[in-house]
Write a structure and sequence with these properties.
- It is built from 1 helix and 9 strands.
- The strands form 2 sheets. Strands 1-6-3-4-5-2 form a 6-stranded antiparallel sheet, with no helix packed on it. It has a 3-stranded antiparallel sheet with strand order 7-8-9, with no helix packed on it.
- Strand 3 and strand 4 form a beta hairpin.
Amino acid sequence: MALVLNDRVKETTTTTGTDAIVLGGAATGFETFAQGIGNSNTTYYAIIHESADEWEVGLGTLDGDSSDLTRTTVLTSSNSDSAVNFSSGNKTVICTLPASKAVFEDGSGNITIAGADITTGTNTS
């Protein structure tokens, strides 16, 4: 099992509740999680309800045939950063890179990772 990120991975679901998301097929022009992430791998995901104010971003694990995405760790959500109890209706599920997990260079050319400035090699904690 590996952490895999990929562009243009987007499926739909009608799953309700807080259980694993049953993936319902790729949106036109996109790949399925099976194609873009692969069986039994983990990835960052976002689930967005199309008609209700419900959303969730987290780390998920695909099952052995990539038909279900288990919501392993919720990072942020419309439910005070806990698992969302999704209501009925259509939802979009995408592979994403959460802002809290991104590494980036600031305007001064510094890169900070978990309290260590790797540009200068100094500890910023």
